[in-house]
């Protein structure tokens, strides 16, 4: 059995993400709320945020001046659908709704930008496509992109096993394949549900974990089921994916992201920081629990404890560029592409629009207007959807500045999913013309 990984007590103070190369999370019902006092401001609220993060399996308001559509922001852009603009504003205005939201639809290089609320309470500044944000479990699609690119190059096989690539992990896990990790049919226990992990995170939300030892927290636990026999969304899966990529190449996961994803797709504002800081400017994320005032939790949590499963920071603009490439199979040959888009029953966390099915680190969202491919994610302060078309020419990102899922606010999640589907219909409407500005 492997010992538990502890925090790196000798780690230097958090480096700002911009000093690193430009290089999650999904909620399940809260079982317990760890009652550990935190020596920080507003400890009761902060403890609730951390408990929400842990119980979320990382898997997965005060009213300010509202801004929507073309009201300020990051430059001129074309006309938007007024009905969709009103619906996004209504989502923000809903009691318990997010302080801010931004949706970006891109087709053939042209974009429509929808915004509502503010990027930071008290400022009135609208969300912008260049604002940084935590993308939560959408980071799992990035680890999928790394793995599939390596598979295409023959450096890593989709049928490679944990036993072959990561023999130090428990023998009971050795039959699990990379493919099963990528579509959440591995049966690996979720380390973010481990009591020891939850206790350590609760005691210090900004704790510096050894990201490469996160699976030690469940090393003594059996598989949930026989590999390949069922679907269960687990944050452990994508930690193992990143470790297998490192083992196969001898390179750090962060470098692989840069070489295989960021650079080919031109992502200049995307990174995997180890700490809790966010690059400026950023969308401030909030814990929203009326009647209390929303609490800014943007930097409440370090990301070393979620790493490849949900730690990436990006912008709406970069996220759209990524999902067009990933959904479009950029760089993949026909065989790897076919396996990427082989689906099993299973939903992302939180569920995306329409009917959800799970592929290799990508989900299909079958809506009334057609199917798009992508990933969702949520963390305290943030909720994300990134989806694109199979031809890689169209994308949709929807970003909220609060955590919305079936546990925190199921009614609002239902409204959000309906709105996401409306945006998909707008995206897939070939009759409309996007303005040639972003």
Structural class: alpha+beta
Shape assignment: globular
Q: Number of helix segments?
A: 12
Measured between the Cα atoms of the first and last residue, the distance is 53 Å
Radius of gyration: 20 Å
Tell me the fraction of residues in β-strands, as a range.
Answer: 5-15%
What low-confidence regions span 5 or more consecutive residues with pLDDT below 50?
Answer: 1-73
- Strand order within the widest sheet? 2-1-12-11-10-9-8-7
Query: How can the largest sheet be summarized?
Result: 8 strands, antiparallel
Order of secondary-structure elements = HHEEEHHHHHHEEHEHHEEEEEEH
Mean pLDDT, all residues: 85
What's the β-strand tally? 12
Proportion in helices: 25-40%
Oligomer: single chain
Walk me through this protein's architecture.
The protein is α+β, with helices and mostly antiparallel strands. It is 29% helix and 13% strand. It is built from twelve helices and twelve strands. It has an eight-stranded antiparallel sheet, with helices on both faces. A two-stranded antiparallel ribbon has the order 3-6. It has a two-stranded antiparallel sheet with strand order 4-5. A hairpin with a 7-residue loop joins β4 and β5. α1 runs antiparallel to α6 and α3 crosses α8. The longest helix is centred in the C-terminal third of the chain and has 19 residues. The protein starts with 42 loop residues before the first helix and ends in a 10-residue tail after the last helix. The N terminus is likely disordered.
Features:
8-stranded antiparallel sheet; two-stranded antiparallel sheet; 438 residues; alpha+beta; single chain
């Amino acid at each position: 059995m492997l010992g538990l990984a502890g925090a790196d007590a000798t780690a230097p103070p958090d480096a700002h993400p911009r000093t690193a190369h430009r290089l999650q999370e999904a909620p399940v019902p809260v079982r317990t709320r760890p009652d550990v006092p935190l020596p920080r401001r507003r400890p009761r609220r902060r403890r609730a945020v951390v408990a929400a993060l842990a119980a979320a399996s990382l898997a997965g308001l005060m009213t300010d001046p509202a801004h929507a559509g073309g009201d300020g922001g990051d430059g001129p852009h074309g006309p938007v659908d007024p009905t969709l603009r009103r619906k996004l504003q209504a989502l923000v205005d809903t009691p318990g709704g997010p302080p801010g939201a931004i949706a970006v639809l891109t087709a053939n290089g042209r974009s429509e930008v929808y915004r509502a609320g503010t990027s930071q309470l008290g400022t009135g500044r609208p969300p912008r496509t260049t604002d940084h944000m935590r993308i939560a479990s959408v980071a799992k699609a990035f680890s999928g992109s790394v793995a599939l690119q390596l598979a295409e190059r023959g450096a890593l096989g989709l049928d490679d096993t944990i036993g072959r690539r990561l023999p130090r992990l428990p023998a009971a896990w050795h039959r699990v394949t990379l493919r099963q990790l990528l579509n959440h049919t591995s049966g690996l226990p979720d380390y973010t549900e481990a009591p020891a992990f939850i206790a350590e995170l609760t005691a210090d939300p900004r704790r510096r974990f050894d990201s490469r030892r996160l699976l030690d927290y469940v090393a003594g636990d059996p598989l949930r089921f026989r590999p390949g026999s069922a679907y269960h969304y687990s944050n452990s899966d994508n930690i193992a994916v990143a470790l297998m990529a490192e083992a196969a190449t001898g390179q750090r996961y962060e470098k692989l992201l840069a070489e295989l994803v960021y650079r080919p797709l031109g992502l200049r504002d995307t990174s995997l920081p180890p700490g809790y800081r966010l690059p400026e400017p950023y969308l401030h994320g909030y814990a929203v629990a009326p009647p209390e005032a929303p609490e800014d939790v943007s930097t409440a949590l370090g990301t070393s404890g979620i790493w490849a499963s949900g730690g990436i920071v990006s912008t709406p603009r970069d996220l759209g560029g990524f999902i067009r490439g990933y959904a479009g199979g950029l760089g993949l040959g026909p065989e790897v592409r076919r396996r990427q888009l082989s689906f099993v029953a299973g939903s992302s966390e939180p569920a995306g629009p329409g009917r959800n099915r799970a592929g290799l680190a990508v989900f299909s969202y079958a809506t009334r207007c057609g199917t798009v491919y992508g990933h969702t994610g949520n963390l305290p302060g943030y909720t994300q959807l990134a989806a694109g078309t199979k031809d890689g020419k169209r994308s949709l990102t929807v970003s909220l500045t609060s955590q919305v899922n079936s546990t925190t606010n199921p009614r609002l999640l239902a409204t959000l999913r309906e709105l996401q589907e409306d945006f998909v219909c707008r995206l897939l409407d070939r009759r409309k013309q996007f303005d040639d500005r972003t």
